[in-house]
From TrEMBL:
<dbReference type="InterPro" id="IPR049142">
    <property type="entry name" value="MS_channel_1st"/>
</dbReference>
<feature type="transmembrane region" description="Helical">
    <location>
        <begin position="64"/>
        <end position="84"/>
    </location>
</feature>
<dbReference type="GO" id="GO:0008381">
    <property type="term" value="F:mechanosensitive monoatomic ion channel activity"/>
</dbReference>
<dbReference type="GO" id="GO:0005886">
    <property type="term" value="C:plasma membrane"/>
</dbReference>
<dbReference type="InterPro" id="IPR011066">
    <property type="entry name" value="MscS_channel_C_sf"/>
</dbReference>
<dbReference type="InterPro" id="IPR006685">
    <property type="entry name" value="MscS_channel_2nd"/>
</dbReference>
<feature type="domain" description="Mechanosensitive ion channel MscS C-terminal">
    <location>
        <begin position="266"/>
        <end position="347"/>
    </location>
</feature>
<dbReference type="Pfam" id="PF00924">
    <property type="entry name" value="MS_channel_2nd"/>
</dbReference>
<keyword id="KW-0472">Membrane</keyword>
<dbReference type="Pfam" id="PF21082">
    <property type="entry name" value="MS_channel_3rd"/>
</dbReference>
<dbReference type="InterPro" id="IPR049278">
    <property type="entry name" value="MS_channel_C"/>
</dbReference>
<keyword id="KW-0812">Transmembrane</keyword>
<dbReference type="Pfam" id="PF21088">
    <property type="entry name" value="MS_channel_1st"/>
</dbReference>
<feature type="transmembrane region" description="Helical">
    <location>
        <begin position="24"/>
        <end position="44"/>
    </location>
</feature>
<comment type="similarity">
    <text>Belongs to the MscS (TC 1.A.23) family.</text>
</comment>
<feature type="transmembrane region" description="Helical">
    <location>
        <begin position="96"/>
        <end position="115"/>
    </location>
</feature>
<dbReference type="InterPro" id="IPR011014">
    <property type="entry name" value="MscS_channel_TM-2"/>
</dbReference>
Length: 359
């Protein structure tokens, strides 16, 4: 009887051993298949990928392919290991622990691949933007977009992981929504300035280095466009710090748009009886004597109106850069006084004639 029992136990142990060997063999075959698939994918991406990307005009696809090749092949290996573990008849806790750990690794790899692709896209866009306009926009905008994308990818990976382990993410999302609402209500002014700053970076009504004039008459050069405020350096070398929400809701003049050329104007009056055509020609010739005055478009002189004591004239001229308007105006004014004196043209003072009648 004992020998029969021993024989039965031996048969059961042999059957169990064969069963485990069979399951392990299946797991090894599954893993070997995915490992070979990973090697094939790596070979295709390294050998054949550049041949297809060479047909494009940019190097963006080459850079993306170079960065995703290592994690993509590693992802296939981890996927094979994940399915191989799932085929093994492990205890429930060990099975959940092993498969759960591999699932987390796979989610991390996928998140890393997505981040690498978006990072290359943003770097490529920033390089193109800096070639077109060197105004520091990529220094302001690209890091902000990278942070927002990173937060989104991490949040998505966390939600997928929690969902895989059957955690109730609805309560988490609800709590995050209520918390975000409370924070938004408490910091609405700060958030308004941040959103306005993001709008200024996208819409670009002005750029760093542009000279702008506000409705209040303040004039200055834009030094920095931050998330909360914009810094403007005025003509008297002081900093004007304005919240972005105010700049988004106000009317301003951008003197550097559409280009940095600027138009100057000089108003003056000549005595009644002066030769108007000669005065206009003299104004234009005087402006042409200044080297910084553009020849195209050429200066123009106009007879504007009849004044109480003088004939009102105007001289319009263009300079290459708006920063030169004041200095060029000063030089033209000084030369006009000299030329008028040489040609006998008077700039009259306002006069009044008072008649006194006696009874």
């Amino acid at each position: 009887m004992d020998s029969i029992l021993n024989f039965i136990k031996l048969e059961e142990s042999d059957g169990l051993l064969l069963y485990w060997l069979k399951e392990i063999l299946i797991a090894v075959v599954v893993f070997a298949f995915f490992y070979a698939l990973a090697r094939l994918l790596r070979y295709i991406l390294i050998t054949w990928g550049p041949r297809f990307t060479s047909f494009t005009k940019t190097d963006l696809d080459d850079r993306i392919l170079l960065r995703i090749t290592p994690p993509a092949s590693f992802l296939v290996v981890c996927a094979g290991l994940y399915y191989a573990v799932r085929t093994l008849p492990l205890p429930e806790k060990a099975h959940l622990l092993a498969s759960g750990l591999l699932f987390i690794i796979i989610v991390v790899i996928l998140t890393n691949i997505a981040y690498r692709v978006t990072d290359e896209l943003l770097n490529w866009y920033a390089s193109r933007l800096s070639e077109q306009v060197s105004n520091g926009l990529n220094r302001q905008l690209i890091p902000l977009v990278e942070k927002l994308i990173s937060i989104f990818l991490i949040g998505t990976a966390l939600i997928i992981t929690l969902k895989h382990f059957n955690y109730d993410i609805l309560s988490l999302v609800t709590a995050l929504g209520i918390g975000s609402l409370a924070i938004g209500m408490a910091a609405k002014d700060t958030l308004a300035n941040m959103i306005s700053g993001f709008t200024l970076m996208i819409d670009r009504p002005f750029r760093i280095g542009d000279r702008i004039q506000l409705t209040g008459g303040q004039l200055g050069d834009v030094i920095d466009i931050g998330l909360r405020s914009t810094k403007i350096k005025t003509m008297d070398n002081t900093f004007l710090i304005i919240p972005n929400s105010e700049l988004c809701n106000t009317i301003l003049i951008n003197m550097a748009f559409p280009d940095v050329r600027a138009k100057g104007r000089i108003n003056l009056g000549v005595a009644y009886g002066s030769d108007i055509e000669a005065v206009k020609k003299l104004l234009v010739d005087t402006a042409m004597e200044i080297p910084d005055v553009l020849r195209d478009p050429a200066p123009e002189g106009y007879f504007v109106s009849f004044g109480e004591s003088a004939l009102n004239m105007a001289l319009f001229f263009w300079v290459e850069n708006y920063t030169n308007v004041f200095s060029v105006t000063d030089r033209i004014n000084s030369l006009i006084v000299k030329r008028f004196q040489e040609n006998g043209i008077n700039i009259p003072y306002p006069t009044r004639t008072v008649l006194v009648e006696k009874d």
